[in-house]
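This section describes the prediction task in plain terms. A model, or a person checking by hand, is given the sequence of a single protein chain and must write out its three-dimensional structure as a string of C-alpha cells. No templates, partner chains or ligands are provided. The sample shown here is typical of the held-out split.
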Amino acid sequence: MMLFRSARKNDLEAIHQLAESSGVGMTTLPKDIELLKKRLALSSASFNKKINSPGNEYYLFVLEDPTNGRVVGTSAIEAAVGHETPFYSYKLSKRTRICHSLKIRSDYEVLNLVNDNQGHSEICTLFLDQQHRRSNNGLLLSRARFLFIAQHTTRFAPIIIAEMRGISDDEGRSPFWDQVGYHFFHMSFSEADRLTLATNKQFIADLMPRNPVYVKLLNPSAQEVIGKPHPSTAPAMKILLNEGFRYNQYVDIFDGGPTIEAPRDHIHTVAASRLMTVKNIIDEVSGKRFLIANTLLDFRATIAQVVFNEEQPFCILSHETAALLQIKCGDQVRIAPLLL
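The expected answer:
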C-alpha cells in the first residue's frame, strides 16, 4: 500500500533526486535544488491559503512507500496557468487553398502562437521512479490529484489541462525545437527548458516569432513529432485520456508535445467520486479496491479495500488504511472507483 500525500519541506532532497533522473523536457520539475525549494515553499503557502478563486497557487504532492519512508514519485497541480506571465501554446490549424482554373487544391497545417489556455488549471510535474512503475503506482500518482480537485473545487478553474512531454532523445535534443525554436532563441532545448522555470518567461515574449509556422516547411523529423508524447509519458497520457481528457490541437511551443484538456467536473474520477463517513475501522477488510482520500488540505490518499452499502453514505476501512490516511471513525473520506 502506497501513500500519496502533500509534499513537505523535508522532501526536498528526494524530489531533487527524482528531478535528476527525469531527463530533459520535464519543465515543471527543475533539476536546480534552489528552484525546487521555492516550489516547495509556494506549495506549502498554497495549501495553507484561504481560496475563493484560483490564482498563483501550486500544489505539490509525493508518492511515498510507507514501509521505508522513501519518496518514489511526485506530481502537482497549478491552479491557474499564466497568472503572472502569459501562457503560450501553438494551435495547430488546417487551411485550404483552391485554384479552380488550374484544378489545384492545397491542404496544409499552420501553427499559431496563442494564449488560449490562459487561466486554466494544469496538472503537471508527474514523475515516477523507474523501479516503481508497477502495481497501479502511476495510476495513484496521477489520479489522486483528481480526488483533491473534487474535494476543493473552488481552488481550481473549470477547465483542467495537461501539457504532455514531447519527443526528445537521450541527449536532450528535440526535433521540433531544432527546426523551430532554435532559429529564434539561439540556445539548446535543455537551456530553454531550464529558463522557462528559472525566469519570468519574458525571454519567450521577446524572442518567439508571432507569424504562423507552416508545418510543410519543417523537416519531416519535426513534422512527425507534433502532438506526439514522449515514450515515457505515453502511459500517463493514456490514464488522462481514460479520464476524459482530449487533444484539441494545442502543442507545446518548445517540443511540440500535446496539450490535452477536460472540463473539471466531467473528469471521470471527479464525477464518480463520493463522500462517505467512516462508520467502523476493523483489522481486515475484504472488498473491492478503491482510490480513497481524506478530505483535508493536509491531503493523503491511497488505494485500498473499502466496504460500503450503495444506499448509505457510510463505509468500513481497515486499521492499516485508516492509519495511513490519519483518519478515525466519524471522519469523512472521498472514494472513487479504481477502474473507470
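For orientation: The mean pLDDT is 94.
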